[in-house]
Amino acid sequence: MTNQRILAHFHESAETKIQSATVLAPHIAQAIEMMFTALSNGNKILVCGNGGSAADSQHFAAELVGRFERERFPLPAIALTTDTSILTAVANDYSYREIFSKQVQAFGQAGDILLAFSTSGNSGNVVAAIEAALEREMRVVALTGKGGGAIGKMLTDADVHICVPHDRTARIQEVHLVTIHAICDGIDVALFGGDVNE
């Protein structure tokens, strides 16, 4: 029984990724182009999410500031999930809903990009961060699932919505991980061309 459950996770994950690939590829390509353009113009990427999505935020920022698969100069990305003094001060003095939006207001500028993770599309503090980003004339790339929720309804035509066509949080997060790797690879290819193995 245990082996069957384990196999079911792997099979469902693989099937979800395959089903998502065709649906999401055009949106991922848009996100790559948008991020490459912003980075080329001297702008930065701010990233936020909760729980596993906070880990994805930090993972993405680390791939840009450090490297993905090839040596290159560091690219400016900031995970808004890492400064515990800011997070706890804002949550305590204002509300948990504002932990990311105040950082967007502090660090975000027109032309920057907010990469926002929410598997449900309804995370209140991510919604608030998007509101703050749009007020600052930033562009938004949102990674969601479960139909996109409130976030899907608030994005503009200038933004990119990458909504995983699944309702299970674990599967959505797994597709988000492949997506951020695809974005990192796309940015590297846009910067340098070709393949890392060439």
TrEMBL record:
Annotated HAMAP family: GmhA
Enzyme Commission code: 5.3.1.28
Classification via Gene3D superfamilies: Glucose-6-phosphate isomerase like protein, domain 1
Protein role: Catalyzes the isomerization of sedoheptulose 7-phosphate in D-glycero-D-manno-heptose 7-phosphate.
Predominant localisation class: cytoplasm
Reactions catalysed according to its record: 2 D-sedoheptulose 7-phosphate = D-glycero-alpha-D-manno-heptose 7-phosphate + D-glycero-beta-D-manno-heptose 7-phosphate
Cofactor binding: number and manner: Binds 1 zinc ion per subunit.
Annotated SIS domain residues: 35-197
Pathway: Carbohydrate biosynthesis; D-glycero-D-manno-heptose 7-phosphate biosynthesis; D-glycero-alpha-D-manno-heptose 7-phosphate and D-glycero-beta-D-manno-heptose 7-phosphate from sedoheptulose 7-phosphate: step 1/1
Entry superkingdom: Bacteria
PANTHER family found in the cross-reference section: DNAA INITIATOR-ASSOCIATING PROTEIN DIAA, SEDOHEPTULOSE 7-PHOSPHATE ISOMERASE / DNAA INITIATOR-ASSOCIATING FACTOR FOR REPLICATION INITIATION
GO cellular component, one term: cytoplasm
Family: Belongs to the SIS family. GmhA subfamily.
More about this protein: The reaction produces a racemic mixture of D-glycero-alpha-D-manno-heptose 7-phosphate and D-glycero-beta-D-manno-heptose 7-phosphate.
Name of this chain's protein: Phosphoheptose isomerase
NCBIfam families cross-referenced by the UniProt entry: PRK13936.1 (NF010546)
GO molecular function, one term: D-sedoheptulose 7-phosphate isomerase activity
Co-factor(s): Zn(2+)
Keywords from the UniProt entry: Carbohydrate metabolism, Cytoplasm, Isomerase, Metal-binding, Zinc
Subunit structure: Homotetramer.
Enzyme class: isomerase
Subcellular location: Cytoplasm
A single BP term in Gene Ontology: D-glycero-D-manno-heptose 7-phosphate biosynthetic process
Residue sites binding Zn(2+) per the record: 59, 63, 173, 181
Gene: gmhA
